[in-house]
Design goal:
The chain is of the alpha+beta class and 91 residues long. It contains 3 helices and 6 strands; from the N terminus they run ββββαββαα. 27% of the residues lie in helices and 22% in strands. The protein has a two-stranded antiparallel ribbon. The protein has a two-stranded antiparallel sheet with strand order 3-4. Strands 5-6 form a two-stranded antiparallel sheet. The longest helix has 11 residues. It is elongated, with a radius of gyration of 19 Å. The protein starts with a strand and ends with a helix.
Length: 91
């Protein structure tokens, strides 16, 4: 068994994550996210999806990036892709 480095739980199903050459041990994804996930520079939430990186800064979404002065970002697509999505939504 290995002890979680966040909560201290000694759990038989603990797992390791290696990032940037550093080994970490956790008992659950919640603890891994708490320790390793980047933080949105605008709203402060943990980024557990893809997020957006602009100018070496992480944001959870395009809105937060825009609110921080980043232009040209979107988390959705307009145009033909929107028409296709609307077509399938009607079915």
């Amino acid at each position: 068994m290995a002890q979680c480095e966040v909560c201290g739980n000694d759990y038989y199903l603990s797992f390791e994550v290696v990032t940037a050459g550093n080994r970490h041990v956790f008992d659950c994804f919640e603890c891994a996210i708490h320790k390793l996930a980047p933080v949105c520079a605008h709203c402060g939430c943990r980024i557990i999806g893809h997020g957006i990186e602009a100018k070496e800064t992480f944001f959870c979404c395009a809105n937060c990036a825009r609110q921080s002065g980043v232009s040209g970002v979107a988390d959705h697509i307009w145009g033909k892709e929107k028409e296709t999505a609307e077509k399938y939504a009607e079915q």
